[in-house]
Write a structure and sequence with these properties.
By secondary structure, this protein is an alpha+beta fold. The chain has 4 helices and 7 strands, in the order βααββββββαα.
């Protein structure tokens, strides 16, 4: 099992940050390797919403399907894969900090199998670095 955490403080209101995160079609704008995100249910995001993501990882195209399993508007989103190369669970939370800024945190867990299970320590490091960079990119994008 892989579990990584990321955190960023963003100089934007929590509502602006949450609204951006809740529109999964924004994912390619801030997640490296993400090429496309398409809704398979009608937007906007809500409990039970579904979407597919197309990403590149280790030189391969990966299509993963997700479902929203928790949704607290303005505060928390939890998504889980329904199909893909590795089961993934992502929790994103947005809160307020001083001066109207936002605190964003993420917990990403995955359960690699096969060859990826053997490389779990390396996978953990790669996923951790990737998620950290993504949240730095999110901060830069929303503050620009």
């Amino acid at each position: 099992m892989i579990e990584v955490h990321a955190h960023a403080e963003i100089d934007r209101s929590p509502q602006v940050v949450f609204d951006f995160l809740a529109d999964m079609s924004n994912n390619p704008k801030w997640q490296k390797g993400m090429q496309e995100c398409r809704w398979t249910s009608d937007p906007p995001l809500q409990l039970g919403s579904t979407y597919d993501q197309v990403a590149r990882f280790l030189g391969k195209e990966i299509v993963s399907s997700f479902v929203v399993t928790e949704f607290a508007p303005g505060h928390r989103i939890r998504i889980q894969t329904t199909s893909g190369t590795m089961p993934i669970d992502v929790i994103r939370e947005v809160g307020a900090v001083a001066d109207g800024r936002s605190s964003v945190s993420a917990t990403v867990t995955g359960d690699p199998s096969g060859v990826f299970r053997l490389a779990a320590p390396l996978m953990r490091l790669m996923v951790s670095r990737s998620v950290d960079r993504d949240y730095r990119r999110l901060k830069e994008l929303l503050e620009s």
